[in-house]
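User: Please fill in residues for this 417-position structure.
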């Protein structure tokens, strides 16, 4: 029995149980919630694993199912007899699950059963914390999570996994997989903002803003600076920190899509990251005690936004492939034009497209990191322009000085290496 595969099955089982339990508990269900559903789901997985180990495996599955049914029947009986009963579903299901875990120790790798038993103990112990998470999530937050589930679990599996188009670069399944990656990263930042964001302060506000959307953060804080010129320094710091987080996103995206490409791009991106972060921290150190509330962040999992990003990614990928194909050589000027234009408003599409081309052996690593550096510099120019247009002359002056450091570093790398 492959323990890695088994862990994957159990992990998915647990996550699905948590997902349904979150929805039920948010709906104030008295039958089962964020702990009971994962236990029931994992119980089903464990029963199925056990069923494969016995000649009459169907009886094992039936026994597990009947155990859950018996718990539900007892719960309803208690509700009838008592005005305000406490049926103790979690304890009952935990008992059934631990029975199966004990049997699993005999028929499966020991570390799997140990992990399940430990996970059950942790799940039971952290009841207040889990309920606290549910209380902090509002309707819009739950909607964001469910929309991510729609994007990941419903749309992705039905898309064909084959290439289309004249240059054979458009793969619907791979394209939507990139959408899932980007939306997932933004959703993580959005959830973190919900727990930390409103009173996060300048530094953490920039980090969370960059995790969700550095472009949206630049627009929001630039408008704040125009409304109150005293906020210009704060806005500049937040924009710098958010722009630094963009490079972290770039490294994560490349590590996921094309890990081998990371060797070529890590140093140039680290240089840009350091030259963006350092001046921002110097300015932040002077106002670090200042408390600034983050503006309300929008749901990053909207289906419309996901489709737009998917189209953008496919367009950039096609444009890079076309530039390479029609110019006859890797590294033609057309590649850099595409990188500069696509990097203006968004770094994710050009990063993922470049990584994809490297993975398909359609791009040299030296040209790959240059494309990303060009896109990053174009992105800085676009953000500075937005800061000037939306935030006014004072903010533009501050941003121009701070952005001069990564711009100079990027130019130096392109010219000297």
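Assistant: Residues filled in for all 417 positions:
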């Amino acid at each position: 029995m492959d323990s890695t595969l088994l862990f994957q099955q159990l992990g998915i089982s647990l996550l699905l149980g948590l997902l349904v339990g979150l929805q039920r508990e948010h709906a104030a269900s008295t039958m089962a919630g964020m702990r009971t559903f994962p236990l029931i789901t994992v119980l089903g997985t464990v029963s199925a694993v056990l069923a494969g180990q016995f000649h009459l495996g169907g009886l094992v599955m039936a026994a597990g199912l009947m155990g859950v049914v018996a718990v539900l029947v007892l719960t309803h009986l208690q509700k009838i007899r008592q005005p305000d009963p406490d049926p103790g579903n979690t304890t009952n299901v935990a008992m059934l699950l631990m029975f199966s875990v004990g049997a699993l120790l005999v028929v499966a790798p020991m570390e799997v059963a140990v992990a399940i038993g430990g996970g059950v103990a942790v799940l039971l112990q952290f009841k207040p914390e889990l309920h606290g998470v549910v209380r902090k999530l509002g309707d819009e937050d739950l909607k964001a999570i469910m929309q991510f589930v729609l994007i990941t679990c419903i749309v992705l599996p039905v898309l064909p996994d084959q290439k289309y188009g004249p240059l054979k670069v458009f793969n619907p399944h791979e394209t939507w997989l990139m959408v899932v990656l980007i939306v997932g990263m933004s959703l993580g930042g959005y959830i973190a903002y919900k727990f930390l964001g409103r009173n996060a302060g300048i530094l953490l506000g920039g980090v969370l803003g960059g995790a969700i959307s550095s472009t949206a953060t630049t627009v929001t804080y630039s408008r704040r600076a125009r409304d109150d010129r005293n906020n210009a320094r704060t806005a500049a710091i937040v924009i710098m920190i958010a722009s630094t987080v963009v490079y972290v996103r770039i490294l994560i995206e490349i590590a996921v899509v094309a890990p081998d490409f990371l060797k070529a791009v890590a140093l140039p991106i680290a240089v840009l990251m350091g030259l963006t972060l350092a001046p921002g921290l110097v300015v932040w150190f002077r106002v670090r005690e200042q408390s600034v509330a983050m503006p309300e962040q929008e749901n990053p999992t909207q289906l419309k936004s996901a489709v737009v990003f998917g189209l953008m990614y496919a367009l950039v990928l096609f444009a890079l492939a076309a530039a390479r194909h029609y110019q006859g050589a890797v590294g033609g000027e057309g590649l850099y034009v595409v990188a500069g234009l696509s990097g203006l408003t968004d770094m994710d599409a050009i990063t993922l497209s470049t990584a994809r081309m490297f993975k398909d052996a359609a791009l040299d690593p030296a040209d790959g990191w240059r494309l990303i550096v060009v896109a990053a510099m174009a992105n800085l120019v676009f953000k500075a322009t937005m800061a000037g247009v939306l935030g006014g002359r004072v903010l533009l002056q501050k941003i121009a000085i701070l952005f001069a450091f990564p711009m100079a570093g990027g130019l130096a790398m392109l010219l000297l290496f």
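For context: Residues 201-227 form the longest helix (27 residues).
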